[in-house]
Specification:
2 domains; about 15% helix; two-stranded parallel sheet; alpha/beta
């Protein structure tokens, strides 16, 4: 038995501020002396009367304001489709998820032309021009 193996049974209580000089936290109660922060509560966004950051920034207007929230597609190379040799149905997002080529939470996929392909596949996923030519050279087709 070792002291490290014991479970923690003591929890430290919160500091009781402003309870007299004998407590060690009396008088100013840890707030220092004078000044705005010693007297009352100041909102966290307050900057001492300076024009706040929120007011200094421009308005977000227009149709492209949520552009950064759009999810980018997962990139797959053509050589990854080699694992789908025996698949007869069109290669779609569901087929890729089923064969664990993409994560189950993936919403969009794009195939890029990296590597080679010998399997004859029908692909119904967005592809680059290079990927399309590689798939068609292998005898497959691309459906959009």
């Amino acid at each position: 038995m070792n002291i490290v193996t014991f479970s923690k049974t003591v929890t430290r209580g919160k500091k009781r501020l402003g309870r007299g000089h004998g407590s060690g936290r009396g008088k100013t109660a840890g707030r220092g002396t004078k000044g705005q922060n010693a007297r009352g509560s100041v909102p966290p966004h307050f900057e001492g009367g300076q024009l706040s950051v929120m007011k200094r920034l421009p308005y977000l207007r227009g149709k492209l304001r949520n552009k950064s929230r759009k999810e980018k597609p997962v990139i797959l190379e053509v050589s990854m489709l080699e694992k789908l040799k025996g698949v007869t149905s069109p290669v779609s997002l569901e087929v890729l998820k089923k064969h664990n080529l993409v994560d189950q939470t993936t919403h969009a996929v794009k195939i890029l032309g990296g590597g080679s392909l010998s399997a004859k596949l029908t692909v119904s996923i967005p592809c680059s021009k290079a990927a399309k030519s590689i798939i068609e050279k292998a005898g497959g087709t691309v459906i959009l």
